[in-house]
Amino acid sequence: MIAPQALPSHGPRERTLTRSARSATKRRTQRARRRNTVAFVRALAAVALAAVPVLVYVMLTAKLTSTSYALAQANQTKALLLEESQRLDDRIARLESPERLAQVAAQLHMHDPHRYAVVEVPDAHVPMPQRGIAFFGVSGIWPTR
């Protein structure tokens, strides 16, 4: 059998207690830091969950306002274009009126014809293209219908 021997001591016993106290303090601070971080993350998540619907609402309201302004602008442009179209239609009607055309014709020394002439234009004779295969049709070998 082996006789029991005393283990060599590496310093006073207090030093060991200080290390365990130091590590316990370290663990406590880490746990507290983790708790604080978890609490902060939870609070941040709660704020984000509350802020997202508000931001979506603001974004949709801004889009609605923008669309309503664009619609008002389009309606105003439409009204202006309709007014201009009516004005141009009135001008066309005024320029094409028989009274005005008679006045312009008189200024240009135009008058109604005293006799009417009917001219017959003969039909233009268009030669029909030959039918057949292109190569034989050129040489004239292939019979045509």
Would you mind describing this structure in some detail?
The protein is mainly alpha-helical and 145 residues long. It has a domain of 97 residues. Helices cover 68% and strands 0% of the residues. It is built from three helices and no strands. 0% of the residues are buried.
In short:
The protein has 145 residues and is mainly alpha-helical. Helix content is 68%, strand content 0%.
Shape: elongated
Instruction: Compute the average pLDDT.
Output: 84
Beta-strand percentage? under 5%
SSE sequence, one letter per element: HHH
Spatial gap, N to C terminus? 133 Å
Separate helix tally: 3
Radius of gyration: 52 Å
Runs with pLDDT <50, length 5+? none
Category from helices, strands and their pairing:
mainly alpha
Extended strand count: 0
Biggest beta-sheet profile: none
The percentage helix is 55-70%
Helix and strand arrangement:
Blueprint: H1 13-95, H2 98-107, H3 134-139
Which characteristics define this entry?
single chain, 145 residues, mainly alpha, elongated
